[in-house]
């Protein structure tokens, strides 16, 4: 009698766990928000690394590395050559002094493959940036929201 009761409770518990897992899987498949939150846990470190690499290159004035940090499908890269970019950067009197990541959010799949065929995902990165103006030597703090794009498994600044 005790054996039957234990088996019955085990089956009930197993069935309950199975149903809960099915409901969770359905929620992840059909609702963007929970799926996006879970994906963000995995993608956030990669986005942060791309952001850190971009700002390290900017602050170190490694313009070749900055150019490589820009998404190949970005409007800028589509309309400007590497040489154009280098000329723009050399003539720019504004320098980044420091930055602070405020948040990374808005991870989403590319829903417009016609416009952005190479882009897999988009994300927003909000950053406080302290800029120094070369002509006045004054600093100012600005808040920017950058778009980052995932192309070919790699995150780039948009």
Structure in words:
The protein is an alpha+beta fold. It folds into two domains: 30 residues; 126 residues, Roll (Nuclear Transport Factor 2, Chain: A), CATH 3.10.450.100. Helices cover 50% and strands 30% of the residues. The chain has a four-stranded antiparallel sheet with strand order 1-2-3-4. Strand 2 and strand 3 form a beta hairpin. Helix 1 crosses helix 2 and helix 2 runs antiparallel to helix 3. The longest helix is centred in the N-terminal third of the chain and has 29 residues. The radius of gyration is 23 Å and the shape is elongated. The protein starts with a helix and ends with a strand. The mean pLDDT is 88.
Brief synopsis:
The chain has helices spanning 2-30, 32-59, 63-69, 75-79, 82-91, and strands at residues 94-109, 119-133, 139-151, 154-157. It has 158 residues and is α+β, with helices and mostly antiparallel strands.
- The whole-angstrom Rg is 23 Å
Q: Assign a percent range to the helix content.
A: 40-55%
Proper CATH architecture of the largest domain: Roll
CATH H-level homologous superfamily name of the largest domain: NTF2-like, domain 1
Shape: elongated
């Amino acid at each position: 009698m005790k054996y039957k009761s234990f088996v019955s409770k085990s089956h009930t518990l197993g069935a309950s766990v199975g149903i809960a897992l099915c409901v969770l899987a359905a929620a992840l498949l059909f609702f963007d928000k929970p799926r996006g939150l879970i994906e963000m846990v995995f993608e956030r470190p990669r986005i942060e690394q791309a952001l850190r690499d971009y700002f390290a290159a900017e602050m170190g004035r490694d313009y070749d590395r900055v150019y490589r940090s820009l998404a190949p499908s970005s409007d800028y890269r589509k309309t400007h050559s590497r040489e154009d970019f280098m000329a723009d950067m050399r003539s720019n009197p504004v320098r980044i002094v420091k930055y602070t990541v405020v948040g990374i959010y808005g991870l989403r799949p590319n829903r417009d493959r016609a416009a952005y065929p190479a882009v897999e995902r988009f994300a927003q990165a909000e950053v406080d940036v302290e800029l120094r103006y070369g002509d006045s030597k004054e600093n100012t703090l600005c808040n920017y929201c950058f778009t980052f794009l995932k192309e070919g498994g790699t995150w780039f600044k948009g």
